[in-house]
Amino acid sequence: MSPGSRCCLHLLLLLLGVLGAPALGDPGPLEDVVIDRYYIPKICLREAQMGDFIRYHYNGTFKDGKKFDSSYDRGATVAGVVGVGRLITGMDRGLQGMCVNERRHLIVPPHLGYGSIGVAGLIPPDATLYFDVVMLDIWNKNDKLQITTLSKPERCNRTVENSDFVRYHYNGTLLDGTPFDSSYSKGSTYDTYVGTGWLIKGMDQGLLGMCAGEKRSIIIPPFLAYGEKGYGTVIPPQASLVFSVLLVDFHNPKDGVFLEHLEVPETCKRRAVTGDFIRYHYNGTLMDGTLFDSSYSRNETYNTYIGKGYIIPGMDQGLQGVCVGEHRRVVIPPHLAYGENGAGDKIPGSAVLIFDVHVIDFHNPADPVEIETVFRPEGCNVTTRHRDFVRYHYNCSLLDGTRLFSSHDYEKPQEVTLGANKVIEGLNSGLLDMCAGERRVLIVPPHLGHGESGARGVPGSAVLRFEVELISMEEGVPEGYLFIWHGEPPANLYEQMDLNKDGGIPAEEFSNFIKTQVAEGKGRLMPSSDPEKVIADMFQNQDRNQDGKITPEELKLKSDEDQEKIHEEL
């Protein structure tokens, strides 16, 4: 039937319906079916046409209201082909042009019903039939899948293909809107492979080409769904299905880790490799954007070795080759993450994970101090050595630029005796072999810094960056010594110290003697910002009975004491 003739038929049926309406109580002889479209849905995507398969409910009565048949009473809809003679002629005509969910009153005259014969025991001869019909479904064997994209993410790097594993939410309804199933009511996604026969054909086709986060409406004709058999009690035979689908994520079992380099520093002197210890911040989300974990929320980095199996395999791979300061997105398929079981109540089974990572620092347990000389004065002949006393300025920060400490915050430079265990090992090493006026940048790994525990203001396992400038240095003395002679000590040392010859050397007498030796260049004190304290410590060491004076028996050179200890050990 052409569109023009179909339109004329509809107009004729409408005209007959309008003209016949007042006569519903007593129509008299009828030439054709009387149609009363008493409910027409606002949206009518399709009208029943000759040759369409339809499903509908109806009540059939006589003029006096007595019921002779009802699909409702049988608990099953009627399914058939309209306009091809499989129904009584009046019903064939009366159903054409109906929309899904449309309701009609039909008055079928005898010659378009069961005529002068009727149906024995059910419909008398020459009976006019009254039908109250609601259309539930319309489809045609030439129909194809109807896909409507409801929303789609701006970014879509990849779409679903055959053999992909998908996780999606859905609401399933019949064409008239009757719900039959929903993943939301179960509280979990539907997880399956696409294109491998696990799904009805229409869903297999309807999911192809979707992006993670995309929403689609998929209308599936019965021959691509459950066909003539239907499914249980919820999907009738020959039912078209409507699925509202939200694709949560998907992957392929052959997928590896996908990397997206969001921001890479212009200078990257070194990239992380297996065995390195790394500190990084991250946000972990599912493909639909649901946040499942974040180091930022805990206000501390995640610290671990890479390539050693301490973290999920996908992250072990995804962190290879990162630079300090890099921002990287790591997309991990479930077989390289938490697999079919998921983790806890936040990571579902078979979930693709997305980590947005910011690398704070990394190091290797075998790393030495990295030294970069920024400036070295010309004619530098004297450099710092072990036990030297040095004054220096410094700025200390993390590798991400976070400022920690600075000597410039105080009134004077930092002072320390190198090798006296007063500063971290890495800084001590970095201050050796420097000239006064030299400037360096030191990169100190945590095993030469503050270790796994960190220190006040310093995170555990942090790599530290020092900018140091050596202000001055003083030659030191060997470890364990507070004073050394530049030559041989006087043979009659005690007599020279005991200025008043009273057989006892008090603190003042001892101090004056030591200061004189230093002034005359005969010896030197251990370098310190407080020489008086060094001399006081020397006196206390010699005043062995702590009576305030040194006797001839008490006075001993450090070298003699060391020799005595050797003999005792022998």
Automatic annotation (TrEMBL):
Residues 539-570 are annotated as: Disordered. Residues 1-25 form the signal peptide. GO terms for molecular function: calcium ion binding; peptidyl-prolyl cis-trans isomerase activity. The keyword Isomerase applies. It is found in: Endoplasmic reticulum. It is an enzyme of class 5 (isomerase). Residues 492-520, 530-565 form the EF-hand domain. The keyword Transmembrane helix does not apply. PANTHER family: PEPTIDYL-PROLYL CIS-TRANS ISOMERASE FKBP10, PEPTIDYLPROLYL ISOMERASE. PPIases accelerate the folding of proteins during protein synthesis. This is peptidylprolyl isomerase. The gene is Fkbp10.
